[in-house]
Amino acid sequence: MSNVYTKTNIFLLSVIFILWILLQIALDMSIFKNPLNYCIAFIILFFTIQYAKSSRS
Question: What was the pLDDT predicted at 26?
Answer without folding.
Answer: 93
